[in-house]
Amino acid sequence: MGAVYRAHDNLLDRIVAIKMLGAASLGAESRERLLREARAAARLNHPNIVGIYDVGMSEEDAPFIVMEMVEGQTLFDRPPKTIDETLAIVRQICAALDHAHAHGIVHRDLKLENILLAADGAVKLTDFGLARSIASRLTTDGSITGTVFYLAPELALGQPYDGRADLYALGVLLYELTTHKLPFDGDDPIAVVSQHLHAPVVPPRAHSPSIPPALDALIVRLLAKRPDDRPASASEVKSEIEHIAANAASGAAQSQMTAPRAELSLLDRIVRGRMVGREHELGEAASVWKRAASGESQALLVSGELGIGKTRLVRELVALAEVSGAFAFTGECNAEGGPPYAPFAQILQTALARPSNERAGEASTAMAAQLPPLVLADLITLAPALRARFPNAPPNPPLDPQAEQQRIMESVVEWCAALSARAPALFVFDDAHWADSGTLVLARHLVRRARASKLRLLVALTYREIELSEAHPLNDALAEINRGRLATRIKLARLSREQTEALLRVMFEEDILPDFLDGIYRETEGNPFFIEEVCKALIEEGQLTFADGRWRRPSMDQVRVPQSVRIAIQARVSKLPVQTQEVLRLAAVFGREFEFALLQRASELNEESLIESVEIASRAQLIDEVRDRRRAGSERFVFAHAIIPAALRESVSGLRRHRLHRRAAAALESIRPDDFESLAYHFAEAGDEASARNYYVQAGDRARRLYANADAIRFYSEALALLPADDPARFDVLAARAAVHEVAADRDTERADAHEMLMIAERLNDNARRFEALIALADLRLETDHFRAFEPLEKALSIARALGDAAREARALRRLGWLNLLRGDYTRCRAVIEEAVARFRAANLIAETATCLHILSLALSHNGDIAEARQVVEESIVLSRAIGDPRQEAIGLRRLGIILGYSGDMQGSIDCTQQALVLHRALGDRAQECNALSNLSVWACQLGQWEEARDYTLQALEIGEAIDSHEAIIKAIHHTAAYYPSSPSRRLTWERLAKRGRASPKRKRGSARSAREKRKQTSPSPKRSLPRSKAARSTATPLIPPYLRKGWQRSRKPSLPSKTIAANL
Predict the structure, then answer these.
(1) Residue 440 lies in a domain
(2) pLDDT for 528-563, tens place per residue?
(3) Are residues 228 and 325 in the same domain?
(4) φ and ψ at 881, to 5 degrees?
(5) What value does the mean pLDDT of the chain take?
(6) Which residues are CB-contacts of 469 (< 8 A; sequence separation ≥ 6)?
(7) pTM for the complete prediction?
(8) Does residue 240 sit in the same domain as residue 365?
(9) Is 119 within a domain?
(10) What's the DSSP call for residue 56?
(11) What is the pLDDT of residues 112-152, one digit of tens each?
(12) How open is the CA angle 255-257-258, to the nearest 5 degrees?
């Protein structure tokens, strides 16, 4: 960094070196930091450290450092020629590092060029404190200036560091000096950084067999990814180096120098973790990330067949994001299933449950403290494990299912907004073809909202097209994302012959003969994972050997290349000890990732034997340990690829597979009894239908509580499939599924479930079940054809009275009252609802009483009994406050505002509606917030407050767009049509709707007509219709009850039809 000049110090009459640090590449803050660190380094006084005499700024505002002049060469220019010389040099480096670390100074840029060899043989370290952060070295095109070959993972990620970062660089330096190779190499700096973060190191003895095994083991430890796995200090390394050197000098027995890695596996000689042949695709992905990081949020869709390298490509993208200082989180989707939103839960747990000594963890923890309690509570709902981190976070009050689902999704958006305000963020959903529907709905919503809100966020999904059936939920998610032009898709193809040759050359670190290349390419057709597994199988079968520094094999006509990747995997597994094979097959039933504790509980082996088998499998590169300090004491392992556990499961008979799943289920039941989804899967695979359906129902109940409707339906359907047609237990499962169908508006399936419920009740002659079935059928008809709802409701009412069940009677009466309201029979509605109120009061069901009072107030209003309607609403507000139900209180306040508006008290109406608005916002009830804003717009217009009315309407439109609510958007259309027939506000509204695909000049009339047709089934005034012509809109009497028309306060612009007001309830 900078130029070095030989100079003479006139004051002290000595030769010095002056290093000029380029001002152009440094900002003021960076210059100050470098000078500050250089001053700190000047306090170091050690024979192996170049002394710093002075620091300052030149006339050109460039920082400079005056230092000791060392006559000699760098270690790069004059590397040692023997192991002994290398050890002698490293001992002095360790002494210098130990002194610096003791004074709290970390070099951070240790490399051959910064180590000087004086003429007398002394080693001198220079450039202490002059390293620049990796993020500051990132250029606008995504490349990195300067060297990255010695970069410790924690420095690459911008995490807190200590002297062990220098020890990692020392490991690279030792590797280079003993093998004349870098442990991680490549033309692309980001690819090199990715190897530092993820790739296993090839042991140095693979390149230089003369390296003492103890030194080989030390170098591998120095290159550990986690600082905790490296030696603790430079003095410890110095002691080990001295011990190795002493043994070598005295000719000690080889056993004295032997470390645990004395036997070098041929598999360890293969270079892993280097991506080959994807430069174009990575460039495209990096371009997408760059745009997203600047606020052009979108989705990145990476598709391709099994083993094609989707995860590897995204891993390189994650490395780019992390070194640039961004947040990067990955959620794994598993074939074995899991709780709804499990991938999102992984991301939330990683972001919010990290130890405080990690940079991203510190930022996320600070951000969590600033999140509104409502948002934090919803995040805990998605990731229940966070409850341990935030034990005092209160749960959110309940809303209706659709509103609560909207609130949860908006809470995720708000968290993402807070995250991206600190730094750009990358979310990866790996193997999205296995994602649950809840995760896909949330991801789709996040992509759309992030684009609209210009968040610095990229959502990346990897998936296999072959896994997508026509009904797969990912298809809908991809269709909507693509329809909104919110995504870039990268489809990975197989490697070409030339790319296959490049991959083989990297793996074996030598030139590849044409006949071997042709044989491998012919069988693998360029699938990267297949190429690697075939080569490993050939090694383990002894067809590929290593001797005299080269890989050797017989002629290709004698080489038996496996015909498929599954055959290659099974061939490799068959070479392992029988005990290890059995352990791997048991682990495979848990899925790609498994916990050691679960494996131990399911296994019949003792702990020592089990550990031995796991270690053998790890050395065979079939599994890897998941290093995660957040889960201390909960060791986890992951198969090297998803196809490995699949191939292992396929290799056992059906009977044995059932037995393995039974053992897995028993282990899960004892350790994770609330993992209903996995328990259901394993019991079903084990053939235990009773246990499976029990857990499927519990999984469905959990999905229903989380509003993951498609997943709830799937789990309930699985439970029903395991129940005989005449089993009475089907009734409750059908009732639960019908309720989810109702929320999801799946009317045909809801109807089928209600009819089957009724058939079961009739067969059992069970009046309680008959009542519930009739209510389910009535609820369906109230939504689809309310004129046909009378029959099931009258029957249900009769049954409830026969049972003497006041609560059931009240439920039936409430629905009958609402039905009469829809039909315009307000007198009958009043009589029925008053009876329902009495029954609910008798059963002490206060919340249901308040709900009925709202319906009663509507009937009274339409009958002209305004004063009584007001009293009823006020009573409902009192009841809601008494039981602590802010949702019902807000609805009551909004209803009171409407009644006051009917009475001409516009200011009182605004006051009540604003109180309701505050409560809706506090609850995160965006749909009801939208309704309140719509009402406020009406009242503001009545007072002639046109600007305020416009602002309310546009706020309502913003929310409607955010929650993707047709109803809210249609109301915005009605408002702009009624109040701004030719204003810029109306044009703005239409432009925004057209941009989202909601409206266009050709569709306006159709949209309004469809809205009217929908309200014919739900509005209390079905006979009235909206005025159609422009003239009618400007002159027609508002559609309000006749008793109010005379006293309605008309302004110079027409008011909104009262049907919209009614809909806002």
Answers:
(1) yes
(2) 999 999 999 999 888 999 888 889 888 887 778 787
(3) no
(4) -65, -35
(5) 84
(6) none
(7) 0.80
(8) no
(9) yes
(10) E
(11) 999 999 888 899 998 875 655 555 555 555 555 557 899 99
(12) 65
